[in-house]
Request: fold
Amino acid sequence: MGMLAKIRRMYFRDKLSLREIARRNGISRNTLRRWLRQEDVTEPVYPARVTPSILDPYREQLEAWLSADRHRPKRDRRTARVMFQHLQAQGYPGGYGRVATAVRRWHAEGGATRHRSAFVPLRFEPGDAFQFDWSCEYAVIGGVRRRLEVAHVKLAASRAFLLVAYPMQSHEMLFDAHRRAFAAFGGVPRRGIYDNMKTAVDRIGRGKERTVNARFLAMCGHYLFEPEFCNRAAGWEKGVVEKNVQDRRRQLWTEAGQRHWPTLADLNAWLTSECRAAWDVMAHPDCPDLTIAEVWQNEQPQFMPNPAPFDGYIEQPVRVSATALIHFQRNRYSVPTEAVHRVISLHVYPTELVLVTEGKVLARHARCFERYQTHYDWQHYIPLVQRKPGALRDGAPFAEMPAPLRSLQHHLLRRPGGDRVMAQVLAAVPVHGLEAVLVAVELVLASGAPNGEHVLNVLARLSEPVLPRESIATTLTLTQEPQANVNRYDALRSAQVREVRHGH
Reply:
């Protein structure tokens, strides 16, 4: 209802005085007289008041950022908080509220098209559930920009969360993320809420019918929580973690993507510390007076106990080649030569590969995510060079021996039969241990005349057991203590001379 129409009714219909109309509406009588005299019954239009703002010198830059973000994927768009921090770096002296208001006004005026949907609010009891999701992020690891799969685990009640980055999405990564999360949370909730990810669901049926992966069910059975899966295209059913993906991408990964990380382990250590620090400063959305950390502490007694970590490996058979190598994800790894031409079991962990046969561990290797790399353990080939010592000269695995052994090999191979002598030295490694052999080799090299026999002799002396000194108990006592006096011998000689004279 227009003010002008209201005033005209009060004056012409209700016969109220100008004083009374002015009192009820807070308008001066002069303004009322001017409005009542005009013939055109339309609302007066006043020019908008223009007041300067400390944001004005930076408004053009802010709108340029907002326009640029329109052409980016949603996950890469900057938040108002991030833009405020960038403006501060450029000298902006104002507060965050002005920037947030300007961003909201820009969006409200049609700066960005947004699909508005409605959702049902969710509520969870303490210790009842956690939600899990993956996101794709990028970071510079070891000087190379890499694509990472980030696991997001978030408690539905307290909103405590943990992020862990992996090179790929696979079962062993999924199991490791749960292990880390339950250790950080201090317990296990009773339910886990997931979307229909391939590492958990083999087939989607009608409604809630799911064929769950057997290995995933084994993990759930180990930790005793019940898995639940959302309906198709119903991400809002796990909206707690969905929002966490958006928030952490725009806040946490803004810094993580700009820094250079030596290794993936360094990045994950930083992510863990940043997540724990955020718990202490972020207010709980349902209890603004409490932080996430405070609500999480109250939730902890409701968790199930955290058992021993689930042995989350993926097993697959592999065949050992004639060169004692197995193939996995376009890389090659060595095994002891005794397993040549056999089919053995490969246990795949997030950071390690374990080769097993008949319940015996044959070899362990650090997992490599590059391609077309060969990883040797030169000790796997020691039994073979006993029969084929000539392979020492150009054998690829032996290029990775410790420096003292490579130096000894360099000296021995210049002599006739040096390859057999070197093979004898290497044969001592399984018997005496690598450290003892390295000490013996270093001592021989320091002598200036290195040879294999010398190494074996030194190694034998080092390996000799030290016999304990035994104390012998005796009851014999001396009537005359020995003295350091040579004159006693002269006295004995004189007695001998006298005896000889008397004998003659």
About this structure: The mean pLDDT is 84.
